[in-house]
Amino acid sequence: MITRHRDTQHTWLGRLWLRLGSFLGKTLLWLIGLGLLGWAVSSVWFAWQHRGPVPVEEQIPPGEAAMSQGIIQTAVRIVDQHREPTRYLRDAHAKAHGCVKADVTVLKDLDPALRQGVFAEPGKTWQAVMRLSNGNAYPQFDSIRDARGMALKLLDVPGKQLLADQQSRAEQDFVMFSHPNFFVSDVAEYAQNIGAQADGQKVLAFFPSLDPRSWQVRHLFIALATLSPAPASPTETTYYSVSPYKFGTANAKFRVAPDPQSCPPYTLPKQNRDLPNFLRTALNQQLSTDRVPACFVLQIQRQNPQTFMPIEDTSIEWKESDAPFDTVAKVRVAPQDFDTPEQNLACDNQSFNPWFGVEAHRPIGGINRLRKAVYEAVSDYRHSRNAP
Predict the structure, then answer these.
(1) Which helix (H) or strand (E) holds 333?
(2) Per-residue pLDDT, 73
(3) pTM score, whole prediction
(4) Above 80 in pLDDT, residue 52?
(5) What sign has the CA pseudo-torsion 340, 342, 343, 344?
């Protein structure tokens, strides 16, 4: 009798587990189905909302100037938060791997349609300064996931400068980082994002309220993609302007990509990634120790306004299928000694600004308008604090 009771009990428990397993399995399938349906609906909605044609002129929203002033105060607060005992750092891209001299040579057979601004004269070689950096506002180990930056400054550029009080500069700057799109769309979103980060609330940068309509999940994924593992060397990374610029009468974005075919074959010795500054060491190894140059191509992607290539939303990547990149110049970094106390101090004091340049390459779009206000204010603040 006891045995029969136990058999019945085991049978009942077995059926219970089978039914529970079946229920959980069906629930999981339903959740997967709903997830796929949600993904499909959101993809269709995104494609519907993000389709061409788009304006070719800037669309300045009301209140942008006031928001920019608030962002300046927040950026200055970040500079104060991240200062070191002896100096004030940049509010972004604080850690440099080095500033090096470079030659930027316009292609000799450049298409006439691409002969704009500093690329107007085929075969022309510009002397330049290149700063390579990490993206974070605070110097950290190079092994930590981060964006990487390149700022390229062409020297002795003739013509009227965009900023009235900078006419003595005679420069053209290209400011880029290692991802094709940005994790904010416009100035309003940037103000909310940087404010949350300055308050130490990074999660709220993308989830500003309990209302799901305010959540910026897509931008969160862009930010996570931007924080990529460190490359073997700063010379092995592709850098993007992210925001658009005038290119003569057209609108365009810039890209600088490695061009190993234009340099002697070189294999970088394996670096110790446990060292905090191994990217500087890698750059030094190639240029100073092994005396091997680094080569890049400077490319232009012109806007096709019939497709979704907006100039006011930097979170949207301009697809190469809509508009390919065209090479306009070659960039060569010759072997050199750059890692000295004097040169590192000069590098730290060097200012790079997309508004240092000529009208043919005028920055456009909300994020670039914001840069005009913030870069100058933060640079002035930092230099005044670092002055002896």
Answers:
(1) strand 325-333
(2) 80
(3) 0.84
(4) no
(5) positive
